[in-house]
Amino acid sequence: MSHDEHRTIDFFAEDALPAPRVTPADAERIAAQHLGFDAHAQALGSQQDANFLLREGSGADLAVLKIANPAFGAVEIEAQDAAADLVSSAHPELRVATVLRRPDGSPRRTAVDTESGPAVARLLRHLPGGTFSGPRHLSPSTVAAMGTIVGKVSTALRDFRHPGLDRVLQWDLRYADRVVAKLAGHIGEPERRAAVRAATAEAWARVQQVADVLPSQAVHLDLTDDNLIRTPGSRPPMPDGVIDFGDVTTSWAVGELAVSLSSMLHHDGVEPHHVLPAIRAFHTVRPLSPKEAEALWPLVVLRAAGLVVSGRHQAAVDGDNAYAKAALDREWRIFEQATCLPLPVMIHLVKDATGLAGVPAGADSPPQPLLRDLAAADIVLVDLSTDADAMDDGAWVDSGTEARLVTTALAGGAAAVATRYAQARLTQAPALSAVSAATVPTGIDLWLGRATVAQAPAAGEVLVADRGQVEIAHGSRVLTLSFPPTVRPLLAVGASVQAREDIAHLPAGVSIHVALRAASGPVVPPLVRPEYAAGWLPLTADPAPLLGLAAATGLAEGTDLLDRRDAVFATVQEHYYANPPRIERGWRHHLVSTDGRAYLDIVNNVTPLGHAHPRVERAVSRQLRRVNTNSRFHYASVVKFTERLAGLLPEPLDTVFLVNSGSEAVDLGLRLAIGASGQHDVVALREAYHGWTYASDAVSTSLQDNPNALATRPSWVHTVDSPNSYRGRHRGVDAMRYGPEAAAVIDELAAAGRPAGAFIGETFYGNAGGVALPDGYLAQVYAAVRRHGGLAVADEVQVGYGRLGNWFWGFEQQEVIPDIVCVAKAMGNGHPLGAVITSKTVADRYREQGYFFSSTGGSPVSSIVGLTVLDTLRDEDLQGNAVRVGGHLKRRMEALADRYGIIGAVHGSGLYLGLELVRDRITLEPATEETAELCDRMLDLGVIVQPTGDHLNILKIKPPLCIDTTAADFFADMLDLALTQLGHGHTW
């Protein structure tokens, strides 16, 4: 075929498009003789072109040599280069693989001869950073950034015109049906071939419904994970570069996004709902029309089908093309994911994501009720939602809860019991699951307490009449009744029915499922996953009016809750996660969202007994029914509680102050120390957090909590090195130097005439992720502060109360006795309760400063809570559980550290653990962004865990002390899975 610079490709006129056969030696010769580059060539993969990375002798990357398929004419290449220049000019923030130019400004482009015929060769700008190819999971922020770039390229090319765009490409989705028809025979497996053909036919029919109104323009048409380039060093990987304009043509504008979305679907853990951030981001930059939103997912399916047939074809005609063969499995996964849900579901999901969803039409009140002689007043609605009182005490984890609630209601005289449409059913949620369960009902379940007759609510046509099921078409909707197979329908398939005509006789005791779906839509399952509910529910209608009940309202209630929070709740009071689940229930070591998704709670040391402990609830409720006032009144509970608390501490710590929080406890502890010593200077550890009150914040030196912490300390606060034996100034055995050095600082302060009135520090380094202090550290520091008249203040807010397992108090691990102990968090199992325990001598000195009073510190309710927590800790052996389960979990994580180089260390004791993530085990560079990405991925896998430490590179693992081995193993398994999916699966 002679080379014609004005010719453009017509795929359907070609037998095949094998990549030109060019060796690295050929590439080096072409670069040197024709393009002025002396370099070493390394072959790069390509479907239909020949690409080489050119490097100079030192190994530095110079450029990419691209030798186009001989089927492509010179005018097409010119269009590609012009498009790249246009995008680069329009969006200078993007790196674009533009053609390199000679000193005179002409492109480094030439015609060369190959075995396959004459072709155009040119040098393109090399973009370092790498592509997104491979199985690595794509995080929401990455997906959104990809969508943003696609939107920017689309807007840049909107008005681009060039004769080289007049092409007929196999990748142009306007020809998808013809491509599949031509190439499907290359799929060897009959089942897969049939699936591809069927999906193509359905998707093509959908697109044709709106094709005439879809805008067309110049498109890149290959903005995939292979052609979007990572910002060098970005973590998580984020795109900022665009390469390979080889498929530039004129096509439907929305196809640009469809191509990109399809490339995301093969990545580990990615399913259709995970690409919604890309759709939203694209829509923000380049708004989709309603018709484009309707066409988008069908085009994704057509792209997926095209990839499968083209990949099989290319592998057949170009047997030496390793790149094409390697893509076959991932192309099939793309197709599986693209077609795993019915097209109408995904179309509605896209509309919902872009704000283009209309208000779904409700079911009209029928001429006749579905169940004869059964009035709405006879039906009891059973609430199975997260907010239902019936879900208290962990009832939702009991598989028999629904049956129990129904039986109770029927026994109470209800003629029937019904569930609610579209209200997530918590009873369907497993406690531990890496994938959300189907919890959102698309119909209503009904249990009958007395016999009745199901009758046609309106005229219609019988579609199905079989044991256990009847379907009747009523206009645009289909009524489905499902019942036990013992019930025989009284209708025949194809028969016309009139209102009030009998459908089936239903005896007492049977259950039926009632649903309404669109007649033109797919079969709808009784329950759907919450991520896809916005796609399924518009295909249904609430059948409640058929039963005489009011239709559900406010299904979207709370969708704006986060915005409302930001409007009135000070934003400095941050929330976990950018898009947090709405948590309205907890049980033991689980938290539950309003979608009916249960999460394993790995972060909540506020509730050591577990969430919603019935013993605490009953005790609080009982006390609130009697009295709750302040501690100036005389009542028994405050005496009993403070006696119990003081009894847990060694002599001479025998006197208790009760407050509401850890911040207040630390603040009061410092005031006690300063008042008793008469010395106003305080020594504190660096990288520590103690609270938000004036005094507790003054001694908080965590740079994460306050980036200016060290620079803004008041003059009376003096800091010493963080005694971190893992990443501190002294590591390993050298950590023994921290104690003498801190003591020396205290001595120097005294010598300078400013003896410290207090030393404050956590007794087990919680803010650093649960790092144990060096042996003997507190003994040396306490001795130093005491010899100069100061007092030792122990912050046990996070680590006390048995969390460490082997020790009830952290100071026991150090074999010391503080002068003042500050404690909170665990004391109230979520109720605001804190305490300061000291000696009577120190406590009495406080009177010299005035009096102390806390309105609710030590109130009857707070005291009862405190007593109940101590009783339960003892009776349920939760400290022992911390030893057993904590030890097991730590061993599991240490085993993971042997497999994942990003795990630098496993810190902690009992159920106060920290998993420190680093980029290098020698330099200990913190893996801050990787840790944040891991936390987001763990949330998607059903685990709530958060980072801690000054670098936010440590997973803080401090779950409720009731956590069991099954849950600990689930956490370790999900951590293993997430680390692999995020590309950290390498050993050291």
From TrEMBL:
Keywords associated with the record: Aminotransferase, Pyridoxal phosphate, Transferase
CDD domains cross-referenced by the UniProt entry: OAT_like
Family: Belongs to the class-III pyridoxal-phosphate-dependent aminotransferase family.
Organism: Streptomyces sp. NBC_00119
InterPro entries for this protein: Aminoglycoside_PTrfase, Aminotrans_3, Kinase-like_dom_sf, PyrdxlP-dep_Trfase, PyrdxlP-dep_Trfase_major, PyrdxlP-dep_Trfase_small
Gene3D superfamilies membership: 3.90.1200.10, Aspartate Aminotransferase, domain 1, Type I PLP-dependent aspartate aminotransferase-like (Major domain)
Domain Aminoglycoside phosphotransferase: 42-263
MF term (GO), any: pyridoxal phosphate binding
Name this protein carries in UniProt: Aminotransferase
